[in-house]
Amino acid sequence: TSTYVRGVQPSLGNLGVYVLVMGQVFEGFKLEMSPLMSRDQKTVDAVVSCQVERLEQFVPVSIEVPGYNRQVQSVQIQTPQMSSWALKERFRWPSDKVLLLSRGVVASPGPTQQGLMGVRELFTSTTGRAEVLLFLESRGKASENIILPGREGSIQRETNPRYRLIK
Q: Largest CB tally within 10 Å, which of 22, 67, 126, 152?
């Protein structure tokens, strides 16, 4: 979240005095998947929902407000310039294949941060734009891909890896 000066409003009881009104901008991404395997386990149906909000910049805007004794004051507020995109679709593909989704070059989520295990997040870019590629692969039943107790949340990779990092 980022805070900015959204506007001004008159102060109660003080003529010619204005109070800054602050606003907040929320940015980031949300990815939701709802996969469903067919009875014969030959096809996968999945609803993929992704939303990205990115703050490009704050554009300064000067406004004039009436001041004390009929004088005009100039106050600077900010207007957020945002980029966003969304995807919500249902896909069906053979379970022995990998589905590749491309959204094209779009706004990437906020600032670069360290992800899991110290690996940089996949959504990183110096320009604020990135090619979005989403690989969907079926790895069998979820019950075969459980988190092992006592391994600090590590994912069972020996028998059937469910997640992998693609560089």
A: 67
